[in-house]
Specification:
The protein is built from six helices and twelve strands. A five-stranded mixed sheet has the order 2-1-3-4-5, with helices on both faces. A four-stranded antiparallel sheet has the order 6-9-7-8, covered by helices on one side. The radius of gyration is 23 Å and the shape is flat. The longest helix is centred in the last third of the chain and has 19 residues, at 201-219. The protein has three domains: 4-124 and 199-226, Maf protein, CATH 3.90.950.10; 128-193, Dna Ligase, domain 1 (2-Layer Sandwich), CATH 3.30.1490; 232-279, no CATH class. It is α+β, with helices and mostly antiparallel strands. It binds zinc ion (ZN) (2 copies). One zinc ion (ZN) binds at residues 222, 224-225, 227, 258, 260-261, 263.
């Protein structure tokens, strides 16, 4: 059985990016996995969608990452493609808080394997505001970590066709606000946080975490066929109650499955762990 730490050793992977994502993905993977990451910047990844909505994403987050990974392999002839894709929006359960999900995907064409690192976080400055003067613009900018984090501006509202990107200092912001207000039918501009990785250090940090999660998954190999990426596919409830020992709705075990050969294994988190009686429908109905 191959050691997962050597599975990708000395192999070459291509990362398609024009937003500096190699800063965090390349060192993380090269150090932990021994793979060589080749950065391909000659392709405009905005064709697969932009956060500022000029171009819609062609499919789901994972589908788009797969398209980028394949495009990179096609351009370079390498048989491993890496891609990162982020999404921003309201949290699925708490819609009043913004939520960022980052994935870093590895597609190994030769071994027919796909491993996806993930990281989801409340830690994002994803926001927008409609303002009518520089003072209001400044208040918003300070709240979202400007100028370390860049801003994007449109006259009127978030649907206007004209757009100013790469606003990264106060002077530039002042000019952009004046320009936008002069062009606006209602004397207002829409400011939004720039979510491109190179313009948003908070997001870059989340991509780093997704890359670290990918490394963890690579290091977990299938006990049957040895392929890295033996990942959690299911969680089983039934953790016994601390008082009566009956099964509760709390998680008792996780199930790992190999995406390549289908081998599956249940792993009990900690056999001595018990659920608090407050979670038991008998002791605390
Ligand atoms: Zn397997
Ligand atoms: Zn109980």
């Amino acid at each position: 059985m191959a050691d997962s730490n050597t599975f990708f050793q000395e192999r070459y992977a291509v990362l398609l990016t024009k937003h500096g994502k190699e800063q965090v993905i390349k060192p993380t993977l090269e150090k932990a996995v021994g793979i060589h990451v080749i950065v391909e910047t000659g392709f405009d990844t905005d064709r697969f969608g932009t956060f500022t909505r000029e171009i819609e994403r062609p499919g789901s987050q994972l589908d788009t990452a797969r398209l980028k990974a394949r495009k990179g392999m096609e351009l370079t002839g390498l048989d491993i493609g890496l891609a990162s894709e982020g999404s921003f929006g309201p949290h699925p359960v708490m819609p009043w808080v913004p939520w960022n999900v980052e994935i870093v995907l590895l597609v190994d064409q030769k071994e027919n394997a796909e491993i996806c690192g993930e990281y989801a976080s409340f830690n994002t400055n994803y926001a927008h505001a409609i303002v009518s003067n520089f003072q209001e613009a400044e208040n918003f900018a300070r709240k979202v970590g400007f100028p370390e984090h860049c801003l994007v501006l449109r006259p009127d509202n978030e649907r206007h066709q004209s757009i100013v990107k790469d606003i990264n200092d106060w002077e530039h912001l002042k000019e952009a606000v004046a320009w936008g207000i002069a062009r606006s039918a209602v004397g207002k501009v829409c400011l939004e946080t720039d979510m491109r990785a190179h313009a948003n250090p908070t997001r870059m940090g989340n991509i780093q975490k997704a890359a670290e999660n990918l490394v963890q998954k690579i290091k977990k190999q299938c006990p049957w066929c040895g392929t890295p990426g033996f990942s959690v596919t299911d969680r089983k409830k039934g953790l016994p109650c601390e008082w009566c020992g009956r099964p509760t709705e709390e998680i008792r075990a996780v199930v790992y499955t190999c995406a390549r050969c289908g081998f599956s294994q249940e792993e009990i988190k900690d056999p001595d762990e018990r659920a608090p009686a407050g979670r038991c429908q008998y002791c605390n109905p």
